[in-house]
Design goal:
By secondary structure, the protein is an alpha/beta fold. The chain has a single domain, classed as 3-Layer(aba) Sandwich (Rossmann fold), CATH 3.40.50. 30% of the residues lie in helices and 16% in strands.
Length: 222
C-alpha cells in the first residue's frame, strides 16, 4: 500500500518545500553486458539533463537491500532495469505502482533482481512505498559476456527509455531541462573509469582478459 495517494503526492506544481521527493534508480551490473542497461540510463540522464532539487539520481548497481532508504524516502520512484520479458531484444515495457514488486518477483533474471524485489516488498510492508512507481525495463540480448558493454539493439533502446523517463519526471514535477553546465569531476553517478565511453574503449582484447570464465576451472572432457 502506498503511504499517500497519487493525488496528494507526485503532483506537479507547488513550492520546493512541498514538492514530492523523486528518486530515479538504475539497477544492474555493468560488468555483464546488457545487465548494465539501468545504470547506463541513469548515467545518460544525468549527462543530458538537470532537474529540480528534489530529484535524486542513484546508481543502484547490485546493492540490494542497501537501496531500501532510497525507496522508502521517495514519493515517486522511477526504475530503469534490464528485464527478461520474453520479448525481442531491445523491447521496452513499462510496469507501474504495486505491480512492480510482483512483476520483478515473477521475472527474476539475476541475483540483483532478487534483492531489489525484496527491497520493494519491504517498503510495502513498512508502509513506506512510494505513491507512484514506474519501471522502465528493456529486454536484454546478451548477459554472459564479462566485461562486455550493451549490445547495439539495447543501446539503441536507451533514447526511447530516457524520453519516457523524462516525460514521467516532468509529470511528477521534477522540472527536467537540457543540461546547461557540464558535470565536474566526481559529480557523476558512476565512476569516471566506468563511464560508458571509457568502459568500451579500454576493454582488453579477449586474449588479454578472461571473458567467459577461467579455463583452469572448466571441467575436463572425458
Amino acid at each position: 500500500m502506498s503511504r499517500t495517494s497519487p493525488e496528494t503526492r507526485c503532483h506537479p506544481g507547488g513550492d520546493s518545500t512541498s514538492a514530492p521527493s523523486i528518486c530515479v534508480l538504475g539497477i544492474g551490473n555493468l560488468l555483464w553486458a546488457d545487465e548494465g542497461f539501468g545504470v547506463r540510463c541513469v548515467e545518460a540522464l544525468q549527462q543530458r539533463h538537470e532537474f529540480a532539487p528534489q530529484v535524486s539520481l542513484v546508481d543502484g548497481g547490485t546493492q540490494g537491500l542497501y537501496l531500501i532508504q532510497h525507496v522508502q524516502s521517495a514519493d515517486c520512484l522511477l526504475i530503469f532495469d534490464a528485464i527478461d520479458y520474453g520479448l525481442e531484444p531491445g523491447t521496452l515495457k513499462l510496469v507501474r505502482d504495486d505491480d512492480v514488486p510482483r512483476f520483478m518477483g515473477a521475472k527474476k533474471m539475476s541475483l540483483h533482481q532478487t534483492g531489489f524485489q525484496e527491497v520493494l516488498s519491504l517498503a510495502q510492508l513498512t508502509g513506506q512505498y512510494p505513491a507512484q512507481v514506474l519501471l522502465i525495463g528493456c529486454q536484454p540480448q546478451e548477459l554472459d559476456d564479462y566485461g562486455g558493454s550493451l549490445r547495439p539493439v539495447v543501446k539503441a533502446a536507451m533514447d526511447e527509455a530516457l524520453a519516457l523517463g523524462v516525460a514521467e519526471i516532468a509529470r511528477w514535477g521534477g522540472q527536467p531541462v537540457p543540461r546547461r553546465q557540464p558535470l565536474q569531476g566526481r559529480e557523476t553517478v558512476t565512476m569516471d573509469e566506468l563511464a560508458l565511453a571509457a568502459y568500451e574503449t579500454l576493454r582488453p582484447a579477449p586474449e588479454a582478459a578472461c571473458r567467459e570464465g577461467d579455463e583452469r576451472f572448466f571441467p575436463k572432457a572425458a
